[in-house]
Fold each of these.
Amino acid sequence: MAEIIQLTVSGVAMGVIYALAALSIALIYTAGGVVNFCQGGLVMLGGYFAFTVLTAWRLPYPLALVVMMAIMGGIGLVFQRLVYYPLRYAHRLMFIIAGIGMSVFLENIVQIVWGPAPLVVRPMLTMSTLNIGGVFLEPQAVAIVVVTGAILLFEHYFLRHTMVGKMTQAVAQDKDAASLMGINVGRMIAITFLNSTILAGIAGVLIAPVFYVSVGIGSILLKAFSACVVGGFGNASGTILGGLIVGLTEAFGARYFSPQYRDAWSFVLLIVFLLFRPQGIFRERISEKA
Amino acid sequence: MKRWIGLLLVLLCLAGGMAVFPAFAAEWTPVDSFLIGVVNHMTGPLALTGELRKRGHELAAEEVNSSGGVAGLPIKLVYEDDQGTNPGAVAGTRKLLAQQPVVAFIIERSTMVNAVHPIIQQEKVPTLFGATAWSISSELKNPWFFRMRVDDRATAAIMAKFLVEELKKTKVAALYAADVFGEGGNKETAAYLKEKYNLTPVNSQKYTSGTKDYTAQLLAIKSSGADAIYAWGTNSEDNAIILRQFKQLGLNMDFIGSAAYASAISLDLAGDNANGIYSVYDFAFEDTRPQLQAWIKAYRAKYKEDPDFWNLYTYDIVKLVADAAKRAGIVRKEGDRFVQMPLPEARAALAKALRETKGFAGAQGDYSADEYQNMIHNLAVVKIDNRKAKMVKVIKLK
């Protein structure tokens, strides 16, 4: 029983990270109609900036998170203007290629700036591992779940109960109609990119103490993509649930079926859902996208 | 008719040229440096170990050149990037050997050595590497391969022997990376345990390198009743996460890992989580061997940090190549210029000299080629204490 709880804890901790990264992908998809294949690179960049603000500048965690959000938000706006905006009327494939290219660029630029060595980032909570009835809880895993939960609640509130959030939703549903309603579509898309990049950066901050900061962190993109498909592309609640499902499937699949193919489980889920339920658990809230 | 006569004349000229060219090609050619080709991880996820390896090469090249090079000719290292992947290694090797008249060639990682094996057989260039998979010797049997670290079969024997005879463990679990190195190392360790002690690992877990969570594997080992783990993995991030989770999940057992577990990178990342583990490592800082201490001192002076095994054997590779090239007489001075043997002959002569190496005093130990063209035959067992590798024993295999 303790083992099952341990695996559940491990799966949930990874799952919420996937959910966070998946939500950042879904936001851009719903607003711009494109999948940003640079999202993994942005998570990685978040990890590297986390090293700078937490280890090099030695800022306390709350202030570091605020600084991180400002930095990543700025990067998101630049990314939107430099990469998305020029390609907004081009074929979707162009943006995908640009995103992949940007990801490769980021992977190499971080090694030039920060060096090739993996970096250690101090955890949010410095207490030692908790042992509760034979279940070992890593404090950072607890912090990940709590912080991610808070962020996801905030996103839910932002998207559903604030005017700006509703405007971004309107743009996501129908750009033309939103424009006719007087909504500045370009500005809303920029805000969406800002929001998405901040989420990616926070994901990087949270996982940096667990995984160490290196270019490998960016591989989370594929798991996050699986989470989007499983949960339902374009549905925020779905991506969260999708992330948890992917995390738990990995944890239990690795333990009871094949530890070597742990990373493959997310793709098995992806294939199963694409074959039998391509719309995901929660289909998109709009019935048709232009 | 005229067209056919013209064509025949062209063909005759070509044939004549081909007959003459070998004669020119057989001449010793003027050179301004002794070229050693290196395919290394300069970009990609393995860039850090690539940088550390390069430091070993560069330090040795500096020392060789400052003491006269190869019969007066300076050594020059020519690099190509493998991007940390097998396709990159193959492409880099092809490009380098096609474009650069290198006399010796250096590559890394067991999986990459396997990948470039056909190219090396075709190009007939002496290739030195640190890759340790035993299958390279037992299956590939490439006469142009020269291994500069102890192979996994010998390392596995030391690991198994230490577990059973020193630590008195009999319920051993295996944890290894699912690549040529990990699979090979596990196979050899398990085989030695069975053959010598009639022991079989009580649990065996493998993982794909780059996996970020080893909870499943470690829980499986924990529930198996094992009292010790032997681990084979080269990726420092993997190793550090494994050691952290090993402690966090409360696995109260001995742990002995392959060399990368005691590397400076792994210890930096793992921090205090590495304390108490053992590793079969290439050297021990406390070893008083003069060449080793000289290398440690030189490395610290140049790079302002402690060396590790990534730069030890790469240092010895360049030194050994320079020594073998001198013994082979590949380069000579004619007047005020240097000339080198025709390339195929130079490579063959270098390979012969490497095969005949006996007692070359490198930093790691004395290098002598055995029947498998493995060049080095000593290792150390270290224990991590306060984030530093402390010598337990140095073992001479031959």
Amino acid sequence: MNCGVVVFPGSNCDHDCFHVLKHVFKLKTEWVWHKDSIDLSRFDLIVLPGGYSYGDYLRAGAIAQFSSVMKEVVRFAGSGGMVLGICNGFQILVESGILPGALIQNHAQKFICKTVHLRVENVSNSFSRECVHKSVLNLPIAHHQGNYFIGSDGLRQLEDNRQVVFRYCGPAGEATEEFNPNGSVSNIAGIINEGRNVMGLMPHPERCADPAWSNRDGQLIFKSIINSLQSGVSV
Amino acid sequence: MLAKIHIKFKDGVLDPQGNAVHHALKDLGYNEVSAIQMGKYIELRLNGISKEEAETRVKEMCEKLFANTVIESYQFTLDSVE
């Protein structure tokens, strides 16, 4: 299994992603520089990591969507390749239109850095199949523009197509306003595309996937991806 | 030629910055302000292009880059400059 971690100017979670894939899960992992206009078909997984690509100038992800590599990422995703966008990676995926909706400033206007509870909304996809349906995971968030927005028609489509993968919730799985850290519509924390091969999420699974730490909930996402690719089954 | 572009959130998109600034204005006693919308202003200096071409090109720039049309609307004017 070949993984590629894309690096934009300003990406700062690329090393954590690389470390988890290469050293924790022992996968062949390469760096992919944003200016590379290379054929990505040799990869099985492309990761768009967190950070502040292009300084979040104009809008987070707005400029990164036009980096040379993104044409190839769009092509790769269009042919069914698996793409995982984390935080700024999620922002880049919505700006580029690979995922629907938009990510705007947190409703409280503060940068929020804390561990949150996430409810697993569906496990019939390659990114969360190793999770228990409706279980609660703990993942850290660290963002200022994580407020997921989509119009009512788009939201209905996401829910009808079971494209919502994670929702912010309380410790008992209650997805209420009280436990919504950033104002995201319907407490949405992570979604997949219609083709079910691209996931974007604001929380950071790579920050809780190293066995040296006590919280390893992030491993479930990586294990789901690996097991999907190794079994050759796309869920 | 000078393109003056205004970008703001569409109706229905939460504008927390606008709300925060509104509260600040109220605290300062400007209670006559019933609503605020914060947006972006961009100026472009354009050379070697006709006004008709500029209309098309600036619109493209707005659609592709300056505005995220999922959440933002834009408008612009084109003025000749000496």
